[in-house]
Amino acid sequence: MALNQQNTIYPCPFSKAYGIPADQAWSLLKIFYIYRFIVSSLFIILFYSHLIPSVFGKSDASLFAYVSYSYWIFSMLSSVLLFTRMLKYTTQAQIALFTEIIFITLLIYSSGGINSGIGILLAIPIAAGGLLIGGRCAIVFAALASISILAEEIYTIQTHNLSTSTLTSAGMLGASFFTIAYLSHVLVKRTEQSEQLASERQQTISNLEELNQYIIQHLNSGIIISDDEQQIIMCNESGLNIISNSINKHKPEFQQLSDISPQLTESFHLWQSDKSHNFDIITLPNKNEVHVRFSLLTTSQATFHMVIMEDLSLYNQQLQQNVLASLGQLTASIAHEIRNPLGAISHAAQLLSESPALPSQDQRLTEIIQSHAHRINKIIEDVLQLSRRRSSLREKIELSPWLKTFIHNFIAQANCASDSFEIQIKDRALWSYMDDGHLKQILTNLCSNSLKYSNSDDKITIELSLVNKAPCLRVLDHGDKIAPEIAKELFKPFYTTSPSGTGLGLYISKELAELNLAKLSYAITDDDKNSFILFLPSAENTQIKI
Questions:
Q1: Which domain holds residue 301?
Q2: What are phi and psi of 397, to 5 degrees?
Q3: pTM for this one?
């Protein structure tokens, strides 16, 4: 055997290619050395104590005493080498087995041959060879033991003029050595196969457990496991996000369902009393509505309760997509029917305005016709933009460089001063999971409105920061503050306070934000600035949709 870099012991060169863990092999070798020490000590004690009638040293007492002492001393010295591991495992195992055969053979000879019964002790190192080394090496040591027994018996017969009948016993004992070696080898192989199968199954179970944990942690739905006393045992990442957003804590600390929401506790009690009420819609402290569903989770040892929390904003997103799809088909048909007569009206007004005999009052009327025709056409284009809108193709975006590139391109397209915008990045390395085109359209609408309604001398500030573990973009300007009653209507379609506006810009921006699981809102800052706040979905909390 040899010890490789992965702490695995491989067989000796004569054996088949299989290995056992290094620590287990060294432990087996230590057990064998302890056995050698005990046996050598018993030989000395029984030889000198005369507590029982003994055949030890019957043929040659001095040789028996010399071999016994040598056996004991060698066992002590080799044990030191074993525990310090000064020699390789292979070397120590082979030396131990080889010397064991030599010492036992000499003790057999000094005790009168095979009839002394000591020869059966050779079965132990043969079996140990199958466990410690295995393969063909075990057969080699069985052959050495058989040859040693036969040689000892032949020499004893010649020197003591004994009967040759003991050769038969020696041959049978040698055959038993081969049988023991083979059986120990088979036993080791089966044990290794069982251990390998158990290891593979354990690895499979471990991989499945890791996969299950990954799936559970990355589900859209929040999952909470609790006991009968509403003690929270486990909560996945989505559940933590829903809870942390609701109680405005970066790292929420909760142990009971009541720490999350009293309404959740009431729904849990209602479900315990009546299992048919297994779902409810509760409102969290941040006013978000969450659909909760209760179910029993029975294991072999105990029964737990599983609470599945689903943010209704996900359902609203799907509903919004369906609504927009239907609205898009309808508006596309209407817009097509309106555009044809509108084009005719606009063309007729243009031709009429080119008439030299047209009075000035009628000329003013044609200008009004063309102006409103252009406004209606702009409304139609915005409505068609809704109908042409593609589904969200979300991707991971690093916001800091993306924002700098966007502002640079926007200034060039809007043909405004290069110092009109100021970027403030409070937290770097922020990543969002959002559609790049949708994010550009949202910020384009917000920046265009800020340029239109803010004072020309003031800079528009674009602020990037991390709020409640989510990236946040704020567009700040010093324009006239929006009255509260108007602010409530800002994101409604076709609502505008501008005679030239269509009232669809902010509505489209909010719809695009919700389509990407983002949130767009308006607020007035403490220093009386208009602030449009866009909370973006974090790329660190990518979830699996089911």
A1: 222-314
A2: -125, 130
A3: 0.44
